[in-house]
Amino acid sequence: MATPTRPLARLFRPRVFFNQHITHRQPQRLSILRSYATTQNLDNVYDIVIVGGGIAGTALACSLAANSTMRDYRVALIEAMDLSNTTNWTPETNKYSNRVVSLTPHALKYFTKVGVTDQLYHDRLCPYSRMQVWDGVTDARIEFDTALLEQLGVNMDEKDPAIAYMVENVHLQHAILKHLEACRGIGATVDTFQKARVENISLDKESALSSGEEELNLADWPVVTLNNGVSLKARLLVGADGVNSPVRSFANIESLGWDYNMHGVVATFKVDQSRPCNTSYQRFLPTGPIAMLPLANGYASMVWSSPPEIATKLKKMPADAFCTLVNAAFRLSTADLKFLYSQLDKDTFEPLVDFQAEYDWREKVNKHGLSDMEIANRDFNLPPRVESVDDKSRASFPLRLRNSQSYFANRVVLVGDAAHTVHPLAGQGLNQGILDVECLADILQQGAANGQDIGNIHLLREYASVRYLRNIVMISACDKLHRLYTTDFAPVTWIRSLGLSAVNQLDFVKGEIMKYAMGIEYTGTAQQEQKQQNNLS
Fold this sequence. Notes:
Structural class: alpha+beta
Main location: mitochondrion
Number of strands: 23
Radius of gyration: 25 Å
Largest sheet: 9 strands, mixed
Organism: Phascolomyces articulosus
CATH class of the domain at 16-89 and 171-254 and 405-536: Alpha Beta
Helix content: 25-40%
Distance between the termini: 47 Å
Membrane topology: Peripheral membrane protein
Number of helices: 16
CATH topology of the domain at 16-89 and 171-254 and 405-536: FAD/NAD(P)-binding domain
Pathway: Cofactor biosynthesis; ubiquinone biosynthesis
Strand content: 15-25%
Subcellular location: Mitochondrion inner membrane
């Protein structure tokens, strides 16, 4: 029996399925599809089944739906949660989610190509063009600014030369789902199964499709069984289902890595609006880095990596003391911070001293002897002061490093957190997942255009050959930075500070770091990268 390489015929209009059985319809356009008489219900047979309806999974479905080459391919998107709240989301004035992403220019360019940016609320998209990064022990500093790239001759967006764009996760996913809905309206076949959890993935070795005179062998096509009893057969099964991926487990792909025994604490703040909203700030403390990222309208998002015992205090201490502690984390010495941590009640987490008075006194000491100009320069290189916190926004998540031993198996491929997880200190986790999606979509579209079987292991190998090494580089770099800066051992702090100050003086090196982090000149697929290398040579 042969394995089909053609897309499964488009029999039904795309639908959104909640936790219920599929209702069958009479086939449409039978004159075109006469050769696909089936020995089983074709309603549940798909070219591509994507497990995971987060940003990576929905972005892949949207990218395929927006491409005319893939329009006749039947795609199923499975998500355990209810996506209706995200689909119907509308922005609220002066209210921001604590789950945000720092989108690189390359990622935004990809979403523009797909058509997603047309669905974004652009006043909720906050570009920033500067980054301030410094050592919490020695104050050695490095500054990144897109003005440097322009000086080095890099083509930047004249209207908006940003290092990255801050956007809420729910906002981005809302735009993806809205554009996916629009793609359905012009003929894309994407069925969404929401509130449907994967119970089992297996192979049905007796399965076949009858195509007139020959039987088509589907024995190696994965079968995804949902908790509502529905089973979907996939020519290609995509795991976009997170760090504990059932798809990865089915493919017997091992996930390698470790937990950091640290938590990332997130929160959304109202900050001093007299300061421009165009800079992100990150200070490396021995207990873990703290970052402040700008949002629109005088708001900012924070992620603070810290040991579990400190993370618990940060989440449960009173809101006003928490705001003071965040200001202190960017401005006071590590000894001062250690003192403030110790002045929290072990049971109630209430401050045992007046945090604001302690902070004010220490800030006065820090500024003693400085001129007005020196004080202004110091404040310019520090984030705007936190004024208040949305107390419901305080939350935490465990930090871990993971990378799958392989990104593919026969008729199985992994993207996003299912393939790799990185420390958030560089803000590259979701961006790496978006690059996975872009690369995989391009390769599948090329394979479809060439009449290849999109589930064939040889086609999927090209995706892995492009993404695996680039992800390893980013994961390794973030891990080494984390280990380098989570110590106050004097010889290490001296060496790292010397290196940081030296790099800050080397514009070309800083430019290359920025271009890599921003995704500038990244082309996506192996064929495109080889073409670029040939042009350079």
